[in-house]
Amino acid sequence: xxxxxxxxxxxxxxxxxxxxxxxxxxxxxxxxxxxxxxxxxxxxxxxxxxxxxxxxxxxxxxxxxxxxxxxxxxxxxxxxxxxxxxxxxxxxxxxxxxxxxxxxxxxxxxxxxxxxxxxxxxxxxxxxxxxxxxxxxxxxxxxxxxxxxxxxxxxxxxxxxxxxxxxxxxxxxxxxxxxxxxxxxxxxxxxxxxxxxxxxxxxxxxxxxxxxxxxxxxxxxxxxxxxxxxxxxxxxxxxxxxxxxxxxxxxxxxxxxxxxxxxxxxxxxxxxxxxxxx
Length: 278
Prior knowledge:
Oligomer: single chain
Helix content: 55-70%
Number of helices: 13
């Protein structure tokens, strides 16, 4: 529903419009409870900007949009009932609340993750000539886990530096290569450069992100989305890690000599166990 509206009207969007649409697409279950005030508070936009957005996507106002959403969802009463129960259910403890929140993040993520996209990502990784990755801040942990597990499959990655150091690696990128990028909350300048350069050099790109509506993300060959909560909430890495784990498991399934490599790893550990205990 929202995906279709996005495709129809994205060419006329401003940066603020992309922020609003991205928020709506991430929070489709909450649309019946949407208010102008909540959008203004969550996104830091003016009420007039929000009002103009509805006209851009073909509605008179927010009420008109919500009526459209209500009619579109009439065929799925179970989803609305489930959400209402979660919304009003008393929280027994802080830990239970966190568990519920993380489950919700993962469900949001899996709702957007098509199995075919994961299969394409696996195929692209396994057939690339050279593998590169770019990650900063908290996403470095995700990249470390992915590259660590991939080494067991004989897949080695070259890291791409931040800032002007990015250009040193870009001189080596070729048409048969793959660049995996991690960029959450916003698209970093380096990621935008790598995505634009890919169209000139023709290397493949995989983007891990929590963005759904952005003029730049469409440049990526494969988009691996994960939901991390509202803009003003603590942004957990539970859902992004789930996507990384799914990719690792699929890679292991598809890698032709994964079992042999695992056996060889165990043999090496045993052979040199006198030097390094495990």
